[in-house]
Amino acid sequence: MIDVARNARTILKDRGLKQSYIAKKAGYTVAQFSGLLCGRKTIKANDITRLCIALDVI
Fold first, then answer.
1. pTM, whole model, 2 decimals?
2. CA distance linking residue 39 with residue 15, whole number of Å
3. Which CATH fold would you assign to the domain 2-54?
4. Residues 1-46: tens digit of each pLDDT
């Protein structure tokens, strides 16, 4: 699942998005979202769906 976090960070950077904006859009706190991106929190299937919708990649 590390690739998911890496890809999400790349999308954030490429699109100039703030983590706080996407965290809120996906229904996470900033701390939860940061945990997902840094590997402190395990990314599960439902997290991938929420991230894809928030990042507008579906």
1. 0.87
2. 22
3. 434 Repressor (Amino-terminal Domain) (1.10.260)
4. 569 999 999 999 999 999 999 999 999 999 999 999 999 999 999 9
Tokens 């699109």 belong to 15
Query: Domain limits of the chain?
Result: 2-54
Q: In the structure encoding, which two tokens stand for residue 34, read together?
A: 């940061």
The C-alpha atoms of residue 13 and residue 33 are separated, in whole angstroms, by 15
Residue 40 Cα distances to 12, 51, 56, angstroms: 19, 16, 24
DSSP secondary structure of 4-47? HHHHHHHHHHHHT--HHHHHHHHT--HHHHHHHHHTSS---HHH
